[in-house]
Design goal:
Number of strands: 37
Shape: elongated
Length: about 475
């Protein structure tokens, strides 16, 4: 078998901080001592002109969450925050005045007559306040057992009537019941943001939010870890993290670049593309990526190359339709000169829907197994058609694992990689001008020899096709039979 490798990929796998909570019934207890009263017992609610001073706290009805002033790590600055009440290690999940801390212990939280919550310092200067455009006769603030701090009118418990909620203004933690995404009517954007440091909860450089451009996707631009509280060890346990390898770094190989962690160098241009600046590659700089070897001109004869086992590209320049099938999707993409790739929108239960890309493709990573399929637009010269114009045995549009007219079989790269233990050195049989020759075994027990095209061989697609074609025609009792190839 002869193998030409198209390794595509760049992925950013992400995971976020998820912290469990205990749900329970809600009770309200108010202690009013003066016209402006202090909180003297455990309560979850404050009314108009009541205050929570530094050293006092609100506690949700079932004791799941607590709210008050705190100082993070080695800082002396004071912030109004919400944290888990029942954990021995203080874990803050929300901060109000993260951009404007109190510099002493004289900070207060109060409900104002403007239907807002406000954090003031000892000089009665507003450091932070909530915002609400709806009127209320008797505004009150309540800390719910979900960890949600809300402002409502009196005792109204209907969430639809809340004047304001902290769940709409996330910090670095996603609790059960919170939402990520943008409200297209009000413009409210709910997203996670990292603390600037352990001592500073102000918004850092990295965020995790829903990108509404193209087909919706969540984007994270920094390494993160998902944590789970373990009662037995009284600690947070990391159960997943990202990135896993260099290829998980967004944009590592540039546009139209291919990243494979098992290859050196990790980046290369996919078939049909060439480096934009060769000098950059000599310096291991792939930031400028690749350009097409032959420019698309929307002429008759253009078609699509199928790539399997990949993570789909960045979807910010995409369009989707849930009712189309794959054939309709191909037709729509081919009829639009700006469309560069397509695939199924939903790969579950037989696959359905249509997802189109427009412009350059970036953020693709190839997997040795699993992954998805994508069909990328190519000029006619890159499609491997025969003289009659029909899909031939070398045609890219052939389904992997299928034969056409009883001719040469195309194998999926994942199958070849598994058969040779990912071309490990101990399977090496030799090396020629074309590339490495390895031994392997298919899942059915058949022993094979795999010849892999080397990037440094100076050979290209044309030479590869010619060699496969000629060898396939040769028949002699001293020659091994050619089973197929992988493109």
């Amino acid at each position: 078998m002869f193998v030409e490798i198209l390794n595509i990929g760049l992925i950013v796998e992400i995971s976020i901080l998820l912290q469990g909570i205990i749900m329970g019934a809600l009770t309200v207890t108010l202690v009013i001592l003066f016209s402006i009263s202090r909180i003297s017992v455990a309560v979850d609610t404050i009314a108009l002109n009541q205050v929570v001073r530094d050293g006092e706290t609100l506690i949700s009805a079932c004791g799941s969450f607590e709210q008050g002033f705190f100082s993070p790590a080695n800082s002396s600055r004071r912030y109004l925050g919400i944290w888990f009440k029942k954990l021995s290690i203080m874990t803050v999940v929300w901060v109000a005045n993260k951009e404007m801390p109190v510099t002493d212990s004289l900070g207060v939280l109060k409900v104002t007559d403007q239907r807002t919550l406000a954090v003031l310092n000892g000089n009665d200067t507003f450091l932070w306040s909530s915002n609400s455009t709806r009127s209320a006769r008797n505004p009150t603030a309540q800390l719910l057992d979900s960890g949600n701090l809300v402002i409502k009118d009196g005792n109204g418990d209907n969430p639809e009537n809340f004047l304001w909620r902290s769940f709409d203004y996330l910090c670095n933690t996603l609790l059960a019941g919170t939402k990520l995404g943008r409200n297209t009517v009000t413009g409210l954007d709910r997203y996670l943001s990292a603390w600037k440091s352990r001592d500073d909860p102000s918004e850092g450089d990295f965020t995790y939010r829903l990108d509404p451009s193209g087909y919706l996707q969540l984007l994270l631009w920094e390494e993160s870890a998902a944590l789970n509280w373990i009662d037995r060890t009284i600690d947070w346990n990391i159960y997943s993290s990202a990135p896993k390898d260099d290829c998980d770094s967004y944009g590592l190989c540039g546009v139209h670049g291919s990243c494979n962690i098992n290859r050196f160098p990790k980046c290369e241009c996919r078939k049909g593309f060439m480096p934009k600046f060769q000098n950059d590659l000599d310096k291991a700089d792939w930031s400028n990526g690749c350009v097409r070897s032959s420019t698309l001109d929307c002429q008759k004869g253009e078609g699509f190359v199928k790539f399997s086992g990949v993570k789909l590209p960045d979807k910010r320049k995409s369009w989707f339709n849930r009712s189309m099938d794959l054939k309709e999707c191909e037709a729509v993409c081919l009829s639009n000169c700006s469309c560069t790739a397509y695939t199924n929108l939903d790969i579950r239960d037989g696959e359905s829907g249509c997802l189109l890309w427009f412009g350059d493709l970036i953020d693709i990573k190839e997997f040795n197994e699993n992954g998805q399929e994508i069909y990328e637009r190519m000029v006619a010269s890159e499609l491997g058609t025969n003289e009659s114009g029909k899909k031939g045995r070398m045609g890219y549009n052939l389904e992997v694992g299928q034969k056409e007219d009883g001719q040469l079989q195309l194998f999926d790269f994942a199958i070849v990689s598994r058969a040779t233990d990912n071309f490990l050195f101990h399977n090496k049989l030799g090396r020629g001008g074309f590339g490495l020759l390895c031994k392997g075994m298919l899942q059915d027990g058949q022993e094979i020899a795999v010849k892999r095209l080397s990037k440094g061989s100076g050979q290209g697609l044309t030479e590869f096709k010619n060699e496969v074609t000629y060898i396939a025609k040769l028949q002699h009792w001293n020659l091994v039979r050619l089973l197929g190839c992988c493109i």
